[in-house]
Each structure stands twice: as C-alpha cells, then as structure tokens.
Amino acid sequence: MHIENLKIFRDLVDNESFSKAAKLNAITQSAVSQQLRSMEKHFNVLIVDRSQKQFRLTREGRSLYEASKDILNRYEQVASEMQEMRKVVSGTVHVSTIVSIGLHELPPYVKRFMQEFPHVNVRVEYRRSNLVYEDVVSSAVDFGLVAFPQKYRQVEIIPFMEDQLVAICAPKHKLAAKKEIDLADLQGCKFIGFDQDIPTRKALDQFFREQRIELEPSMEFDNIETLKRAVEVDAGVALVPEGTIRSEIEQGTLVKLRLRDRRVARPLAILHRKGRVLTPAMKRFMALMLNGLNGKSAESA
Fold this sequence. Notes:
By secondary structure, the chain is an alpha/beta fold. It has three domains: 3-85, Arc Repressor Mutant, subunit A (Orthogonal Bundle), CATH 1.10.10; 91-161 and 267-300, D-Maltodextrin-Binding Protein, domain 2, CATH 3.40.190.10; 162-266, D-Maltodextrin-Binding Protein, domain 2 (3-Layer(aba) Sandwich). The chain has helices at 3-15, 18-24, 29-43, 59-85, 99-116, 129-137, 199-211, 224-232, 246-251, 280-291; strands spanning 91-97, 120-126, 143-147, 155-169, 180-181, 192-194, 219-221, 238-241, 255-259, 265-273. Strands 1, 2, 3, 4, 5, 8, 9 and 10 form an eight-stranded mixed sheet that branches. A two-stranded parallel ribbon has the order 6-7. Strand 6 (192-194), helix 7 and strand 7 (219-221) form a beta-alpha-beta unit. Helix 1 packs across helix 3 (29-43).
C-alpha cells in the first residue's frame, strides 16, 4: 500500500467520480477501479456499496477514508516541514481564477513571484466562478480567485482586495462628455450586463433593487472582455471593475464614468481547501498576494 493509493482513494471519495479522480492523478478510470479493487483485496472488505446507484461508501470504506485523509495530511505536513528545513521553495502553484482577475489583477503578482522564486512554476486556469470553487474542493488546484466570495463547503475564504465598479461607454455616447454621473443617468440607456449566474451580476441586481433603479440588460455576456467589446462599438453602457479597463482608457476606446452618488465595491478573495497543508511555495505565493506588490518580500513569509 503506497501513499499514491491513498490519494487516489481520497480523491475518488471527495469527488464521488471515477473520471475526476482519474484526471486529478493523471491515470485512466480503469486504473482507479483497479486501485479500489486492490485496496478491497488488501483489507479484505468492501469499500464501496455497489448495490446503490449513487456513489456510497460502506462503513469500512468510511473508516478507511477518514484514515486516508489523516495519513495524507500528516505526510503533506512532513514534506512541507522538510522543504522548510532545507529552505527550499520549489514545485508548482496551481491557481484557478475567474477571467477578469486572471487577466487584470493576477499577472503582476505572478511576475513578481516568479522573479523572487524562479524555481517555482505557476499554472493558471481560467474558469467560471462556480467551477473555481469546485476546483478548490476537489484539490484540483491549490488556490482559487473569485469576486464576491460566497460561503462554500470545505473552502477557506481569505479577503484579498477590493476593486471599484465604474460605468463605461463608447467615446461617442451621449454620456461620454461627463466625468461623473448619477446612477439614475443610466436609466433610459441600453445597458449591457453579465450573465445572470455571474456573481458580479447578482451583486449589481441586488444593488439596483436597493436603489430602486431599473436597468434591464439588453445584452448579456459571460466574460468581461466580450462585454467591453460590445461597449466599444456603442451597443450600450455597462458597469465593470475599474481595474479591468486600464488599457482601453489609455487607448481611448472606452470612457470611464465614476458614480457620483454611490460607491460600488467588488470584493476579491483567495480560496483554498480547509485543512489543506500549504507547501513553502504556496505559503510564499499567498503572502505576496496578501501583502501586495509594495509590501515586504514574500521570501520572509
């Protein structure tokens, strides 16, 4: 019985999916099934109740799962402690992030981190918000980055920063001559919004209800880049995170309009699985994100 066997089993139970466990461990589904049968043979017990349509552990399987988690957690702690004692910062930091954070907030942090720790690889995947949470829970990634974080099972939420939402329009739009506007000025304009399942859209809908403002999107998009392109061709106005429009403002393809009467914040957060042992590389990465680019070096974390 090897550590790898226990990890495959833990991933299988956590995800209740042979295909996901296979993907996480870079093996085939058949290999996952073989590992399960091998463990059942080794302990001479049934681990999974095959009489049920849904994935369900037997009593023995549940006991083995809890023991596997304890063993793997201790193993990861020891591995991390050995790296700390050798002052080694290497390996891979795997991040799952929504597109807007991944394209606009994250890059300078990754650049700074790789300058300080050239022996660490940083892998970034762009995902919809709900999938970022799933990636974190399944241990498919080390960290997740989301906006408007929500409580989620087995997920630790660490506030990261806040961005402000501002209105944008095309240079030839009737509002373009203004530097600031009232929220009510947007009424009567064609409004471009995010898809209804995007957290920023949900937050804006709630904000509009509280302010008794009626803004029904004439167009909806699932990512910030497509939304900005629509505004650039004067298809309507939109509310977007200020940090996502720097290049368009510099190039003059969009006009930024601050809201005079209201401040709309967009909180960002770092996610990681509760109880997860962080390697030295993960600790340094999170320290850099939390300290900011102008803070102390992550080397001292």
